[in-house]
Write a structure and sequence with these properties.
The chain is of the alpha+beta class and 390 residues long. It is built from ten helices and 14 strands. Strands 5, 6, 7, 8, 9, 10, 11, 12, 13 and 14 form a ten-stranded antiparallel sheet that branches. Helix 1 links the parallel strand 1 and strand 2. Mean pLDDT is 77; it is low at 2-45, 203-231 and 383-390.
Length: 390
């Protein structure tokens, strides 16, 4: 990315990220100790199946997040039932949240690679599985479990999640990529599954008390939100969407999302779909205390209703579409949708990706790879589908 005065940036030798970028749809840190639930007793397991289909699964697990004996016992149970080869196991570390282990699993010939950990583990594994012939499976055990909530997939049923590894079906979903420019001019690339952004969203993550998060889970973000709201500094940036003219904006948060559901039933991006080949953008511009109250009501209540209405028969009519359009846009929140997005900030800001802070950036470019990631989900005849949260 070039500096605002036109001088080329310095730092990493990676490909430069220009101020205005056009692209086409085409193509972590150990945290809380959250124990997975015991296997579901609802799914009966027959006698071991004959080993006719010698497919192989691999499990990449965060040892801080899982109870390994229970995890291995449950996965091996369904592996034997399906007649698959012996499952391969890889533990993450502080230095490597899962990417290196995912590469080892691919080299070992794994057909399905399951991520057992929080959102950071899932993202690290997905970055490597993305574009390969393998499928990503989920064994949720973190605080957010954002991808699992948006698919949706079982969140607190280890038996159902393990069953899906061996008996589910493959579903293609979109995978986001974001190129960032650091304050020193160096550049990095990340993948994202749920959303990436800056402002209040990122400040909340930086301010979150890790000890409190261990005790109360996602409720720790409420404490973080209160402390982050004390930082009244707005963000000033320039952005360009889908080849339109560059616009200057002053806002408190800017978020680019591949899907829109958060914890506690919050719906940040009501129009976002995980497999539509587009990303959705929200710009938060509240004015005073009541502006934040309005945003809270929208995110925690109205957006969920709007999402259900849009998917209904009435929502698909011309009258329904008009209602959705009129209801979507209001002053505190501005929603955008497109295939290309570039933003340059007036000053460096904290940036977050799928719920993890990744440091300060001065600019970023986001793009989407439609159907670029294969995810293992419960099949249409799978009895565990009833456990998936909507």
């Amino acid at each position: 990315m070039d500096a605002p005065d036109g001088r080329p940036g310095t730092g990493s030798t990676r490909a430069p990220v220009p101020d205005v970028v056009t692209f086409r749809t085409a193509q972590p840190v150990p945290g809380s100790v959250d124990r997975m639930s015991t296997p579901s007793e609802a799914t009966a397991v027959p006698e071991d199946a004959p080993a006719t289909d010698q497919r192989t699964a691999a499990v990449i697990y965060n040892p801080v997040k899982v109870h390994l004996p229970t995890l291995k016992r449950t996965v091996n149970r369904y592996q034997r039932e399906a007649g698959w080869s012996e499952t391969k196991w890889y533990a993450t570390s502080e230095e490597d949240p899962g990417g290196g282990m995912a590469r080892q699993a691919l080299e070992a010939g794994a057909d399905v690679i399951a991520a057992a950990g929080g959102d950071g583990t899932v993202r690290a594994v997905a970055e490597v599985v993305h574009g390969s012939d393998a499928a990503l499976a989920l064994l949720p055990s973190g605080t957010g479990n954002l991808l699992a909530r948006n698919i949706p997939a079982p969140i607190d049923d280890l038996g159902a999640s393990a069953h899906t590894i061996f008996h589910g079906e493959d579903r293609e979903i979109d995978m986001g990529t974001v190129h960032v420019e650091r304050p020193d001019g160096s550049r990095e690339q990340f993948g994202f599954l749920v959303m990436a952004g800056l402002g209040l969203d990122a400040r909340m993550l930086v301010n979150t008390n890790d000890d409190l998060k261990k005790k109360v889970g996602w409720l720790a973000y409420v404490d973080s939100l209160v402390r982050s709201l004390r930082d009244s500094d707005a963000i000033e940036f320039r952005y360009r969407l889908d080849g339109q003219s560059t616009r200057s904006v002053r806002a408190h948060s800017l978020i680019v999302g591949n899907c829109g559901m958060l914890q506690a039933g919050a719906t940040l991006l009501p129009d976002a779909e995980i497999d539509d080949g587009y990303f959705d953008v929200v710009v938060m511009r509240p004015h005073g205390f009541f502006g934040w109250v309005r945003i809270g009501a929208r995110v925690f209540w109205e957006n969920a209703i709007l999402r259900r209405f849009r998917r209904s028969a009435l929502g698909k009519t011309e009258i329904g579409k008009t209602i959705v359009t009129k209801t979507r846009d209001e002053r505190p929140l501005r929603y955008l949708r497109g295939e290309e997005f570039t933003a340059r900030l007036e000053r460096a800001e904290e940036f977050e990706i799928d719920g993890d802070p990744v440091g300060e950036v001065r600019a970023f470019r986001a793009k989407i790879d439609a159907g670029g990631l294969t995810v293992r989900v419960a099949g249409p005849e799978d009895q565990t589908r009833a456990t998936r949260r909507r």
